[in-house]
Specification:
Largest sheet of chain B: 9 strands, mixed
Radius of gyration of chain A: 19 Å
CATH superfamily of chain B: Class I glutamine amidotransferase (GATase) domain
Oligomer: heterodimer
Number of domains of chain B: 1
Order of helices and strands of chain B: EHEHEHHEHEEEEEEEEH
Strand order of the largest sheet of chain A: 8-7-6-5-4-3-2-9
Shape of chain A: globular
Strand content of chain B: 25-35%
Number of strands of chain B: 12
Distance between the termini of chain A: 42 Å
Structural class of chain A: alpha/beta
CATH architecture of chain B: 3-Layer(aba) Sandwich
Structural class of chain B: alpha/beta
Largest sheet of chain A: 8 strands, parallel
Radius of gyration of chain B: 15 Å
Strand order of the largest sheet of chain B: 2-1-3-4-12-11-10-7-8
Shape of chain B: globular
Number of helices of chain A: 14
CATH topology of chain B: Rossmann fold
Chain lengths: ~300, ~200
C-alpha cells in the first residue's frame, strides 16, 4: 500500500523486528488454533475451519515418525505454495540450530519460524540466535529453564514440546504443569533464592524476576505435542495455555474438516462442558496414535535440544 | 463504567490492561471484563474488538450471537474501540469473503496491506488532538483504503490509520494496536467520549 501511493514513506521512522513487534505477533494468536498442513489444499481447509495460522511442513509428525531418517525444513516450494493459498499467517519449521534454514524461511516471508524438535537437530548443543532475525520464533520447552533460555535467545513465543506425532496428550500436560509449578515456586522466592534458581536453570536472573512478577511466562505460551481431540485442546486451555498447536491430530483424523472446526470451537468454549459435549459429537475418530509410554527414549522428540 | 473486550480470540487481556491503565489516569471507576455472550455485551458501556485473526474472530462472533449484539450496541450509541483485526471486522468492507464485516464504521479496508509479519513495524502516528505522536505498533496491519461517513483522526506518513465514526461518533477504529504499548492516550480518548 505504501509503495503504491508513491508517497515518500519515512523509512527511518519505521522499526521492524523489535521485541514488541515480534511478541505482539504472538499475542495476536492467543485463543487460537495453529494447524499443521503439508500443502495448499490442507491450508485452505485449516483456514476455513477457523485456524489462526497454519504451520507448513513436509510431513506431519506422525508420518515423520513412521518414515524415520532425517527430517528437514519443508521444501521452499511447499512453504510458498501454502503462503500463496491463505490469508492467515503461515509458520514454518526449521531444525534446531539450523540458522541457514531459518534465514531461507525469513527471506521468503514466512510469518513465524518454529525451531522445532520434530525435525532432526542440526546442532546438538546450540539453538539459533533468534535475536538477529526480524521474523519471530516459537520454540518448544519441557520446563521453565528451557522456556527462559529460549526467550533469552530471542523466542517470541513458547509452546510445550509434548510428544509430537503420538496423539497422546500426556507429555504436553506434564510440560505445562511443570512450567506452571516452577513459576509458582519462584513467585514465593526472595531475591537470593531467585538468583540461585536462575543459576541452576542457566537462565538470566532478569527473566526469572520478570516471570515471577507477572506470574506467567513473559511471552505467549501455547500447548503442542499430542493434542488430538477437542477435549485435549480444552484440557490444555484449562491449564492456562494461551492457545493450541495441532499437528497430526487434524489431518490424521477420519474427518479433518469436522475435527479442525471442533478443535477451534473447543478452544473458544474450553470451560463449558455442555458446549464441549456438543462440539465433540459427530467429529469422527481421532488419529490412531501411539502411547507415549511405549516409546523408547531414542524415539522421543522432546529430548532434542535443551 | 463497564469496558468489555470481545473475548473470542486475540489480545483480549492486553486491551483490559490498557483500559485499566487509562481508567487509573483519568480517575474513572472502570470494570473490565471478557465478553463472550450477547448478554454480557449488552451490559457494557464501552466494547472493544481486539487484535487477532479477523477470519477467526468473525467466525466466532457470528456463531456466538455477538455480532448482532455489537451492531445494536453501536447503533444505540455505545462506545466502541476496534483495533487491527477488530477494524477489519467492524468495517464496511474488507473485500474478502473469508471475513463477515459488521459495517459499524464506514471504511473500506485491505487485509495485510503492509505485507507479512517480517514487514510489521513500530512507527510514530499523528493523532488529532495529541501534542506528541503516538507510538503505533502495526502487526500484519490492515490499511484503510477509503473513508466514507467517518472522520480520519490518525495518520502514518499521511495515510489514514485511524477513524472516528458510527451513528454518534461513538466508534474508534484503528489499523494499529494501542493495547500493546504503555501509552494509554487512545483508551483515555475513548473513555472521555463515553463518559
Amino acid at each position: 500500500m505504501m509503495d503504491e501511493t508513491g508517497d515518500a514513506t519515512d523509512v527511518e521512522s519505521l522499526k521492524r523486528g523489535t521485541d514488541l513487534v515480534k511478541r505482539g505477533f504472538a499475542k495476536m494468536q492467543k485463543g487460537g488454533v495453529i494447524m499443521d498442513v503439508v500443502n495448499a489444499e490442507q491450508a485452505e481447509i485449516a483456514e476455513d475451519a477457523g485456524a489462526v495460522a497454519v504451520m507448513a511442513l513436509e510431513k506431519v509428525p506422525a508420518d515423520i515418525r513412521k518414515r524415520g531418517g532425517v527430517a528437514r525444513m519443508a521444501p521452499v516450494e511447499t512453504n510458498e505454495e501454502i503462503i500463496d493459498s491463505v490469508s492467515i499467517p503461515v509458520m514454518g519449521k526449521v531444525r534446531i540450530g539450523h540458522t541457514a534454514e531459518a534465514r531461507i524461511l525469513q527471506s521468503i516471508g514466512v510469518d513465524m519460524i518454529d525451531e522445532s524438535e520434530v525435525l532432526t537437530p542440526a546442532d546438538p548443543s546450540n539453538h539459533i540466535d533468534k535475536r538477529e532475525f526480524e521474523t519471530p520464533f516459537v520454540c518448544g520447552a519441557r520446563d521453565l529453564g528451557e522456556a527462559l533460555r529460549r526467550i533469552d535467545e530471542g523466542a517470541a513465543m513458547i509452546r510445550t514440546k509434548g510428544e509430537a506425532g503420538t496423539g497422546d496428550v500426556s507429555e504436553a500436560v506434564k510440560h505445562q504443569k511443570r512450567i506452571k509449578g516452577a513459576i509458582r515456586e519462584i513467585e514465593g522466592m526472595n531475591t537470593e533464592e531467585r538468583r540461585n534458581f536462575a543459576r541452576e536453570i542457566e537462565a538470566p536472573i532478569s527473566l526469572v524476576e520478570e516471570t515471577a512478577e507477572r506470574g506467567r511466562l513473559p511471552v505467549v505460551n501455547f500447548a503442542a505435542g499430542g493434542i488430538a481431540t477437542p477435549a485435549d485442546a480444552a484440557l490444555m486451555m484449562n491449564l492456562e495455555c494461551d492457545g493450541i498447536f495441532v499437528g497430526s491430530g487434524i489431518f490424521g483424523a477420519e474427518d479433518p474438516e469436522s475435527m479442525g472446526e471442533a478443535i477451534v470451537e473447543a478452544v473458544n468454549s474450553y470451560d463449558d462442558p455442555e458446549e464441549l459435549a456438543e462440539i465433540s459429537r459427530n467429529v469422527g475418530g481421532g488419529m490412531t496414535g501411539t502411547s507415549s509410554a511405549d516409546l523408547e527414549d531414542a524415539d522421543r522428540m522432546q529430548y532434542r535440544g535443551n | 463504567m463497564k469496558y468489555g473486550v470481545v473475548g473470542v480470540q486475540g489480545d483480549v487481556e492486553e486491551h483490559r490492561e490498557a483500559a485499566e491503565q487509562a481508567a487509573g489516569k483519568l480517575e474513572l471507576d472502570v470494570d473490565t471484563l471478557d465478553v463472550t455472550t450477547a448478554g454480557e455485551l449488552r451490559e457494557c458501556d464501552v466494547v472493544a474488538l481486539p487484535g487477532g485473526e479477523s477470519t477467526t474472530i468473525s467466525r466466532h462472533i457470528e456463531e456466538d450471537g455477538l455480532a448482532e449484539a455489537l451492531e445494536e450496541h453501536v447503533e444505540g450509541g455505545g462506545g466502541f474501540l476496534a483495533t487491527c483485526a477488530g477494524l477489519i471486522v467492524a468495517s464496511h468492507s474488507a473485500d474478502d469473503e473469508r471475513v463477515v464485516t459488521l459495517d459499524v464504521v464506514d471504511v473500506d479496508v485491505e487485509r495485510n496491506a503492509y505485507g507479512s509479519q517480517r514487514e510489521s513495524f513500530e512507527a510514530p502516528v499523528e493523532v488529532d488532538g495529541f501534542d506528541d505522536p503516538y507510538p503505533g505498533v502495526f502487526i500484519r496491519a490492515p490499511a484503510i483504503d477509503s473513508v466514507g461517513e467517518a472522520e480520519a483522526f490518525a495518520w502514518l506518513n499521511g495515510d489514514v490509520v485511524g477513524v472516528r465514526g458510527g451513528p454518534d461518533d461513538n466508534v474508534y477504529a484503528l489499523s494499529f494496536h494501542p493495547e500493546l504499548t504503555a501509552d494509554s492516550r487512545i483508551h483515555e480518548l475513548v473513555f472521555q467520549d463515553a463518559r
